[in-house]
Amino acid sequence: MPFPATPLARFGLFLVLFGAFTSVTLVTVSAADDPALDSIEASSTPKSREFGDFDVIPDLIPESGPVADATIDWTPAWFVTVGIVSVLTLIIGLKLNAFLALIISAILVSVLVGFDAGAGMGERMNAVVSAFGNSAAGVGIVIAMAAIIGKCMLDSGSADRIVRTAVDVTGEKKASLGLMISGFILAIPVFFDTVFYLLVPLARSLHRRTGKNYLRYLMAIATGGCITHTLVPPTPGPLLVAAILNVDIGMMMIVGAIVAIPSAIVGLAFSIYADHKSPIPMRPLGAHDDRHQPLDDEKLPGLFTSLLPVLLPVVLIGAGTLATTLADGEDRAAVLTTDVEDFDLLAQRFASATEKSPAGRLLASDQITEKQRQRLTRPAQNDVEQQAVVSIINRALLDPDYYSPEAFADVGIPPVAEKLMKTDQVRMKPVDRRRMNRALLDAAYPELIAAQRWDSPMRRTANSLGLWSNPNFALLLAALAAMLTFKIVRTLSWRELGVDVEESLMSGGVIILITAAGGAFGAMLSQTGIGDTIQQYFSGQSAAGIAILLLAWCVAAVLKVAQGSSTVAMIVGAGMIAAIMGGDEPPFHMVYVATAVGSGSLMGSWMNDSGFWVFAKMGGLTESEALRTWTPLLATLSIGGLITTIILSQIMPIAG
């Protein structure tokens, strides 16, 4: 296999291989001596019982002595290793097309999973196809529209107008800082990939103007977008981490932004270094990218018209995100004391509940303690006790395993619960989980608990924005605006415009295929069960103080390297850390544990991460170039976030 010639290239390749090696090594070393604690994935483990101050999992605790190596299945780690070696060898060693390499590696890993589970090979092939389809559904329209927006903004002069205005304000030397700040702000209400799609035309136009620093401009956008994507709500990842760790959303937003700022500055400094050490030329994304010559300044479209394709989706998506966040904050699925018809009868129902009944499932939830279970079986005598009862019920309604076919065999499943049960349970927001379980509880005991009143003026507002704030629709509107500007400025016929749009879609199609294949490969790595293996290993750990921050960062980093998704790494990692900590509180605010998890989820981004392919293909970089730029950039942001978190936790603990 050819070895990279430059030191930066060698460093990039080393970092990826080191991250892959670390992900396998950390789950294959001998387990620690501490008792295994409750797992976040309750669905994959038996219900816990009380053991001292901790909830422990009986199946993971030997009859005597510490957790043994035999309790952990190492097979998934080997499957992940095979997948890592396969994709790196095919792409870097054999120079195979990235789409083919990712699909072949995904099939290989899927087949290995099938052999281990005794599943049919046709079934495993269908799993790859299904994962590819799900990934394509998530990015297909967005990337296609982004390709149109990018080409139209460049060829119409819109990007040039924005860049000239920005350079006049900031100066050419600070242009990369402006791009970084733009990505930093826009990625708070909007997903990173959408922000990157919208700002790439500005980076390309800025390079055309300056004739240099193309890589710096791309990395500046990535720096700003990535760091807030993992640290600042209402982006789903940090929003769910805050909910899992019981951190106030406002506190998460403030501290997340404070942690993100120095990390972004360090990331920008690394971007400047990488561009100086190993500059990368701007390459055409399509066959005829240079068909239209640059326009004179007086012929460029106005600033508002130029900004419209960028501002339109940001405003629409941001408005929908804000309305949904405010509606979720109302928590209309929570049980109120006024919703309970008879507290005495409710206590009797809990006291006589069998294990295989809706009330029994609520009592058995690992979301509540034994003392809280006993409280539910005793009648509430006053307002304070009534409030305590409904608070315990609301806590139990966050259990991802509340529903079971046996317990609800005689209960008609409400449509809303049936719909929510079909969605991605890992990424489900707590408010939606409580809504799902509350609907089941209402259906089981209509005589005891009034039906939830989900609709509110704010929820109706959020629902009314559902179409307009959908990223696919918002970017479609932005693409139409960019096309119309392009047609008017260049005085094109509809046929000529159609030719340009078709060319942009052809280049976008390749990006869609590669990104979806990367998603399928990451999904197959997840299906190996590597998450459970990592979970079992770390469940034997215990830590306090700074050590818990290091552990939180490490757990999220290993999960990210293993399966590719920062959001999943954050959600699962936060749950694991919550289980490891039990009921103990660190000597600082829990928000720092949340930012440590968010920072760790940036570490080790490589070819199983869709963000890697978005950066590489939309930026016009090769796989090797992305490995030595994107991968170490995110590692820099990750380590910077961890260091900032540790420092803040010591000088500004906000304890209590």
From TrEMBL:
<feature type="transmembrane region" description="Helical">
    <location>
        <begin position="565"/>
        <end position="583"/>
    </location>
</feature>
<feature type="transmembrane region" description="Helical">
    <location>
        <begin position="177"/>
        <end position="202"/>
    </location>
</feature>
<feature type="transmembrane region" description="Helical">
    <location>
        <begin position="537"/>
        <end position="559"/>
    </location>
</feature>
<dbReference type="InterPro" id="IPR003474">
    <property type="entry name" value="Glcn_transporter"/>
</dbReference>
<keyword id="KW-1133">Transmembrane helix</keyword>
<feature type="transmembrane region" description="Helical">
    <location>
        <begin position="627"/>
        <end position="648"/>
    </location>
</feature>
<dbReference type="Pfam" id="PF02447">
    <property type="entry name" value="GntP_permease"/>
</dbReference>
<feature type="transmembrane region" description="Helical">
    <location>
        <begin position="84"/>
        <end position="115"/>
    </location>
</feature>
<feature type="transmembrane region" description="Helical">
    <location>
        <begin position="506"/>
        <end position="525"/>
    </location>
</feature>
<feature type="transmembrane region" description="Helical">
    <location>
        <begin position="465"/>
        <end position="486"/>
    </location>
</feature>
<keyword id="KW-1003">Cell membrane</keyword>
<feature type="transmembrane region" description="Helical">
    <location>
        <begin position="127"/>
        <end position="149"/>
    </location>
</feature>
<keyword id="KW-0812">Transmembrane</keyword>
<feature type="transmembrane region" description="Helical">
    <location>
        <begin position="252"/>
        <end position="274"/>
    </location>
</feature>
<feature type="transmembrane region" description="Helical">
    <location>
        <begin position="214"/>
        <end position="232"/>
    </location>
</feature>
<keyword id="KW-0472">Membrane</keyword>
<comment type="similarity">
    <text>Belongs to the GntP permease family.</text>
</comment>
<protein>
    <submittedName>
        <fullName>GntP family permease</fullName>
    </submittedName>
</protein>
<keyword id="KW-0813">Transport</keyword>
<feature type="transmembrane region" description="Helical">
    <location>
        <begin position="590"/>
        <end position="607"/>
    </location>
</feature>
